[in-house]
Amino acid sequence: MMRGSDEELMLSFRNGNVEAFEALYRRYEKPLLNFLFRIVMNAEDAENLCQETFFRIVRAKKEYEATALFKTWLYQIALNLCRDRMRRMKHRSHFSLNAQVSFQYDGDVELQELISDPASDLDKHVETIELGALVQKAIACLPKDEHLVISLREYQGLRLSEIADIMNCPIGTVKSLNHRACMKLKKYLARYIGD
Is residue 95 situated within a structural domain? Predict the structure, then answer.
């Protein structure tokens, strides 16, 4: 397994080292897929966009400059693909607060362990899954820029400055979007989990 910073690996790939690209792919496939799913809310579309993002990385490898973080460049490409997809859609589907949400529990406990271990707190895990689905539903209802900021910050762990670079806007705008989104989520979720 190749080691090195993202930028070093991308420069190595730019110079012909395919293993460097494979290392970047392994690092970012799951986080990028997760991000794309949270934006498009469709697993098949998210997979297609993820593959297209990496395809664009391969095609643009000679254009890459290490002056920007690789992660920022990757998410910019993915975001632009999402925006292009949304523009091409003739009818934009709206997410209903009454719609069912499929939620995958990302915890370390397997369902089989919960069932086979009578000492485990199954109710607590079910509550966690239900709360996760509720949060996912609330985030999906946010305006697209607020949704994007929350997805990048909370689920991808990016700093506000990185998000500003990805969205190509001032950091003050990102801070404002983040604040508004958090206030809306807090208000929506307060009905279910109390203050």
Answer: no
Q: Which domain holds residue 121?
A: 112-195
Least confident of 7-16, 91-100, 136-145: 91-100
Q: Any idea what the CATH number is for the domain that residue 40 is in?
A: 1.10.1740.10
- pLDDT 10s digits, 10-60: 999 999 999 999 999 999 999 999 999 988 888 999 999 999 999 999 999
DSSP structure class, residue 17: -
| d(C-alpha 132, C-alpha 63), whole Å | 40
Say whether both 181 and 118 belong to one domain. yes
CATH of the domain at 171: 1.10.10.10
* Domain count for the chain: 2
Backbone angles phi, psi at 101, to 5 degrees: -120, 130
Distance CA 23, CA 20 (A): 5
Contact 153, 163 (CB under 8 A): yes
Q: Look at residue 97 in the predicted model and tell me its pLDDT.
A: 44
Residue 63 has what DSSP assignment?
Answer: G
User: What dihedral do alpha carbons 107, 113, 119, 124 form, nearest 10°?
Assistant: 30
Distance CA 178, CA 26 (A): 29
Q: Which amino acid is at 18?
A: V
pTM assigned to the model: 0.69
- More confident: 1 or 170: 170
